[in-house]
Sequence to fold (508 residues):
Amino acid sequence: MTFSMIWQHFIMVLAAILIAIALGIPLGLAAYLSRPARTAILRVVDLIQTTPALALLGIIMVFLGAGKPTVVLGLALYSLLPIVRNIVLGLDQVSPSVKEAATGMGMGRLYSLLHVELPLALPMLFTGVRIAAVNAIGTAVFAASVGGGGLGGIINTGIRRDDMGMILSGTGALMVMALGMDLLMGWAERRINSRQTSARRSRIPVRYAAVPALVLAVLAVVLSLAPARTEGLFLYDGQFSETKLVCSMVKQLIEDRTDLTVTIGDEMTAVNNFNELTADEPGCDIMYSWDGTILTTFLHQDVDAIPAGSSLYDYVNGQIGQRYGIRMLDKIGVDNTYAIGVSQEVMDTYHPQAISDLVPISGQLDFGAEQDFFTDAGSMKFGPFTAFYGLNFRQAIPVDIMLKYKAVEQGQYQVMVVYATDGLNKRANLTILEDDRHFFPEYNGVLVVRSGLFEDCAEAAPQLEEILNLLGGRFTNEAMTDLTYRVDVLGEDVAAVAHSFLTEQGLL
Fold:
């Protein structure tokens, strides 16, 4: 965890709260002044609050693309409910006699609202802002799913690796940030409530000090969230170590052999990364994926769509070329397909070597996998898999993908679907069974490049395609497993592990 990650997280929250205040106050005033508008406004902000965070960010990303602006807008919308409701509640609680006195003094409705009623409702408004700010700090961890950065990535990585130090450091930073912001806003609220503020306490009245403070806050937000001007090539980081390693290798290879600079951005989910690569104005230049993932997840096709005589790799390359103008480079040698791993207890008791060996004993075993493996999307899922092999497990247990290794280590199930090159397979002491009836398709690791990349770089790096294809065929599943083990289990730095591999291969 670095200071820049904490700063990113804080700035996103600050920007969201400023936007939520700017939107929430007019909405709250409209809801207070108009009963019909009140019903509509409060229902809308209620609905926004009940929308799952990832779903809301996904919807916004369709319009704004990946990155911090999507996160900031999502957090701002999430923060509207306590602000709007507290404005309405605070104004409703203003004494009718005060309102009558204002009217009797000749004040108009709007003047009375802004100069009498709203100042009296400020404590309630501040309470709403405090609630929104604390909630936003926790919700902002989802920024890691859409390339927004912040502290979500380190917490997700800590959960996946079962690294309590990493989890606690990220969570502790969030707690300190929430506590600090709450204390600061509490102090501001007390100053507003105090009717005894005098020049002896401060030479600058609070209302005048607030103006430059607000200007500085807005300036900091604008500068921090403004798109960074990056020259050269841009890649989004992945959520898993294999992707992180390959991205680091791409960066080191290109910068070693050309004058181009390569920027690796915040981590992002594979689906969002692919959307950025294939957008009308691509948000990245290169991504690492697998041809099987592209077929099933991005193209929404199944393996039975592949014509006879065509390989999965060639078919997928043709499809993405026709649809998006992008293409895959040479296979790097990794086949990170689904695999079935069993615990050491199963090996010691039953000694299976292949998936078919589980048929007579499956009724005595529990099966675990991430939620996605239990869906009906495609044939490479739990239902078709168990039907194909004739397996009837005692119990099928869905679990979050970040927690599934922890669950198998705790004995919650004995059989688990895994990715073939995941270094955590070694930590969990899982034995990978042979797919003896070849149910799972290939998942060849490939670099995918955006349309026109090599033409755009023809002058600055005419050998760019050849340089990237230096990774072709360099890996085996065993080699990648060892590399991800060094990152996920031994805690070695991604860039250092990538550099050592490239050096061993004679590429640096």
